[in-house]
Amino acid sequence: MSSSATLQEHPLNIVGAGLAGALLAVLLARRGFQINLYDRRPDPRTTAAEGGRSINLALAARGIRALERAGVMDDIRPLLIPMRGRMVHDLSGATTLQPYGQREHEVIYSVGRAALNRVLIEAAARHDTVSLHFDQTCLGANLERNVLRFRTAGSTAPAHKPGTTNSPSATHLDEYETPLTPTIATDGAGSAVRVSLTAANHVVTREDWLDHDYKELTIAAHAARNVLDTNALHIWPRGGFMLIALPNTDGSFTATLFLARTGPNSFATLTDATTVAAFFQREFPDALALMPNLTRDFAANPQGQLGTVHLTPWHVGGSVLLLGDAAHAIVPFHGQGMNAAFEDCSVLDSLLDRHTRWEPLFAEFSASRRPNAAAIAAMALENYTEMRDTVLDAGFVRRKAIAMDLERRFPDRFIPRYSMVMFHPEIPYAEALRRGSIQAEILAELDKNRDPRGNTDIALAQQVVAARLDPIQ
Ligand code: FAD
């Protein structure tokens, strides 16, 4: 099969019906594409959600824009809980709300991963041109033979053979192959497609693992009621580590502990119920009071790893493209992995307006998204330090106030970096990173030159903003 095939000449494989894969299937089905959408999980419309992996997520403007483009926002809106800022909990239990933005609509939304994914899969399933194949684990791609290899979960014979036009050839009882071209791999951070392409030297992958892991825990609904503000992302920064919690629609909160793997304050020291309870009593006493099942959850829930995936290139000719976490997984501290993956989907969809072949489409997609993926990866890493260390710092709070003031005075030139990333999808991530570093210098200079009463020198602000920041396009 030629890799210069026109767009709708063959059915498109999408490997991974997670957040990006399911949204992409909806967007492409709206254009009439024949799609085979595969996932290794059972059908989430008929089975309970898998536990243990970021049960809720922060959805922001970039993600919302893509969901609107796919026409699914009406189904998703009821799942959303607005969060208007970070509620910072200090060691004494005192709380301070740090608003994310300064306009009414500048909020982010907590959304359950499983419910969001289910809505997207239901939306994909409404299109006759989408064939859904669950319990199908992709084992990798073979470019030389132009096939994708799958294993069917729990089967002993190749009775079920996904692939609408192709007759897969069975090798093992439960394994089969299907034509590769064209494939979009959205099989997440551990992508089997990426692993196979890397092993065959078609792409180069670098995975930078953090030396901090995470564990999800539950804050009970009855305990949280009237104690935790539902419309905030709660954070217990402790310098070097932190606990955060996002609200769920049932009144509970999903808490996530981010902590070093080894060392004095680390997962390695939390070996049993006694050490876990003592650690929470010392570091997060107000949260501990809301977690009646802490030690049980801690023992039962997995300890997850965090890292950044750097992949070069993102596509091989017109045969296969990787998208979302499969191409550019990032650490979760800016709450942007899903948002970036959704933005990938809308960018790819918009490129379909002017391409007729996969190879140039994949090439243009990669060229436009790679610098942005690199920028959000860098900002996400920086945000870990901000969340766990600096939010309690007086200088940080002062500079944040100056930034808000500059945005009010010079809205066409100065938008705080966090706001550019979360609320301004028209500003690419790479541009947010570029402007953000100029803005950081401006903020440091204005902070240093405050008058004795702590006021900003407005004349200086006007001068440096005009000189160093071009108007936002
Ligand atoms: P996934 O959602 O991981 O989907 C991959 C799909 O592929 C899954 O359905 C999986 O079953 C399937 N699959 C995997 N392997 C195979 C295989 N071999 N064969 C077939 N199917 C396969 N992002 C945000 O925007 N906001 C947040 O607040 C946020 N918080 C996070 C918190 C944590 C702790 C973590 C770990 C991540 C967080 N993220 C957040 C990032 C977000 O989860 C990811 O960026 C997002 O899920 C990427 O979507 P995806 O579709 O590319 O991958």
Brief account:
The chain contains 16 helices and 19 strands.
Plain-language structure description:
37% of the residues lie in helices and 22% in strands. It is α/β, with parallel strands linked by helices and 473 residues long. A hairpin with a 4-residue loop joins β14 and β15. It starts with 11 loop residues before the first strand and ends in a 5-residue tail after the last helix. α2 runs parallel beside α11, α13 packs across α15 and α15 runs antiparallel to α16. The radius of gyration is 24 Å and the shape is globular. Among the domains are: 218 residues, FAD/NAD(P)-binding domain, CATH 3.50.50.60; 76 residues, no CATH class. The site of flavin-adenine dinucleotide has 33 residues, from α1, β3, β9, α10 and α11.
Q: Ions, cofactors, ligands: which are bound?
A: flavin-adenine dinucleotide
Number of helices: 16
Class from helix and strand fractions: alpha/beta
Give the class-level CATH name of the domain at 3-50 and 113-206 and 308-383.
Alpha Beta
Task: Kindly report the name of the CATH homologous superfamily of the domain at 3-50 and 113-206 and 308-383.
Answer: FAD/NAD(P)-binding domain
Protein topology:
Elements: E1 12-15, H1 19-29, E2 35-38, E3 56-59, H2 61-69, H3 73-76, E4 81-83, E5 85-89, E6 95-99, E7 108-112, H4 113-125, E8 130-133, E9 136-142, E10 147-152, E11 175-179, E12 183-185, H5 192-199, E13 204-219, H6 221-224, E14 233-237, E15 242-247, E16 253-260, H7 273-283, H8 285-288, H9 294-300, E17 303-312, E18 315-316, E19 320-322, H10 325-328, H11 337-351, H12 358-388, H13 394-409, H14 417-423, H15 429-448, H16 458-468
Parallel strand pairs: 1-2, 1-12, 2-8, 5-14, 12-19
Antiparallel strand pairs: 3-7, 4-7, 5-6, 9-10, 10-11, 13-16, 13-17, 14-15, 15-16, 18-19
Helix pairs in contact: 1-4, 1-11, 2-11, 7-9, 11-12, 12-15, 13-15, 15-16
This protein binds flavin-adenine dinucleotide.
